[in-house]
Structures are given as C-alpha cells and as structure tokens.
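INPUT
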Amino acid sequence: MKKTISIIALGILSIASIGVVMSSSEWSEREDEERYGKEYESDDHEDGVFRDAWLDSRADVHPAENQIYQSECGGCHFAYQPGLLPGKDWERIMDSLVEHYGDDASLDELQTAEIRGYLLDNAADRARLSRARAFSAGSDAGDGLPRITNTRYFKREHYEIPARIVRSNAEVGSFSNCQACHRSAGAGIYNEHQVVIPGVGKWDD
Amino acid sequence: MKILIAFVMAGLAATSMAYGPAAKLIAGYRNTGAGPFSPDAGRSAWTQEHPSSSGAGMRSCASCHGSDISKAGRHAKTGKPIEPMALSVNPARLTDAKTVEKWFRRNCRWTLGRECTPQEKGDFIQFITSQ
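OUTPUT
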C-alpha cells in the first residue's frame, strides 16, 4: 500500500515538474503542430533570442515573416506583427499610407495589395495564438489613429510602467518602441521574463 | 607629362561620378532636360530646412540622415538606425533604381511637401556619390 502511494506521488510529482519546466508563462497553450514544429526548429542559439532560465520561450504573437512587410514596413520602425492589431485597424492604416502617423509611407499598388492581404490574413482577430487574439479586444479612442499602444490589452499589460522610464528614457522614447525593452520582440516573444528596460534592468513581475 | 597625367586622372575622376550604380538614374534625369548636376548643390539642399505641414518644426534630409552622411543616421521619430548614405562607406546605396525612386518620392514629400525635381534628384545623387 505504502509503495503504491509513493509510486503514485512520484508520478504526480514528475508530471507536475514537467509542467513547470514546459510552461514559460501563464498563457501556455499548445496551439497547433505547425507552430510546435517551428519552435523546435529554431533551437540553436544563433537566432538572437533572449533565453529564459528553463526552456526557450515560444512566440506570443506569430512573427512577421513576410519579406516585403519586413523590408518596406520595418525600414523606419519596428516591424509590428500583424497579430498586434485587428483587421479593421490594418485596413485604415493601409488606406492612409500617404499620411502615416506624420510620414509618407506610400508603396506601389502591387506591394500595397500584398501587404494589405498579409496583414488582414494574420490580424489579431484571425490569430490562433491567444495573446495575439487579446489585441483584438478593443481600443480606446486616443488620437483617433489606430495604435497598438491604445488597445485595451496593451494598456492593461503596461499600466504599471511609469511613463518616465519609457518616454524620458533616451534609449526607449516611446511605448511604440517595443524591441527597446522586449528584447525578443522581433521573434514575436513579449513575455515579461524577457523584458529588460535600458538603464533600469529586468522587469519581472 | 605630369600635367597630362593630372588631366587624365581628373577626367577619370569626373567620369567615375557619371558611371557606377547611379549612372542610369542620372541619364534618366538628363533626358528630362535637367543637368548639369553638382554635388555641392546636393550638399546644400541636403541641409536646407523646410517647414513641416503639421507645424511640428523644421525638417531637412539631415533630420534623419545627418549632415555627415558617412555616419549612420536615425529616424527622427522612431529612432531606428539608418545605414550611412555615403557611397564610399555603404556601397549598397544607389544600386537599385526602384528603391532610390521610392525613397525620393516618400522623403521629398515628407521633407519638402512635394516631389523632388529631376534636377534636385540628380544633385542629391551626385552628393551621395561624392561622399
């Protein structure tokens, strides 16, 4: 009887510890085989991804893999993943590239069409990753322009960050500058364990 | 003899500015009737300031690219680093005509509020090539 109990206890303990090791954030969810396979592919340490203590983090938002999007849109600012805004916001942005947050970001027709299609196909309301879907939960009005930093989910996640360590921080400047603090933002990884605020340090809740 | 060599070298130097990656673009602008082009005109246009349409302050090419184009610049708003423009430092510049025209279209509209004329574009290209 004692032996059985200890074997069962051991079994439960092993399963629990595997669970702890495998989960890197409270959003853990095995989504689909494709993504599972992808992250194990990039298991070498040359992809510039900031490593957790246990296992490598998985993407919270699917990385922006479209080459044209990366080169055309990532040329002036961080290439925000399509999963960070709902489709209707991407539509508004693509309809007004000539007046793009104070800049002219116009593209030729072919590129505009391709990027628009890519963004809509992968937008937050169509995303499979739960953290990306959260970005489609609604935005505050703000200045009227679609902004990731105005989405309710973003505001909730960043409300306790004092504005001065972002806006008055020469190395960050703005909440729109994701990769300044989220060191693996380029890979779509935004979990708090990989946040290092320049001049401040790790910001782990 | 020395003078002859000096002239030949000067001639080669002059033509080297007309050949190379930017040659096709320059030829295209010449066809519209623009030219001759001057790196000095390009340099002074580079740092010339223009009022912004939103009233947000003056802007020039140097606002993002810097006035010393052998150094990296940064986007005036996002802070994103921009590779140096100077051809001697960054030989990848001016190698794709479509890319050059795209950035002329966007950046002239942002800086000057209008498209650049072929004369202005030619001067800019000569300036970038000369650095």
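end of record. The longest helix of chain A spans residues 2-22.
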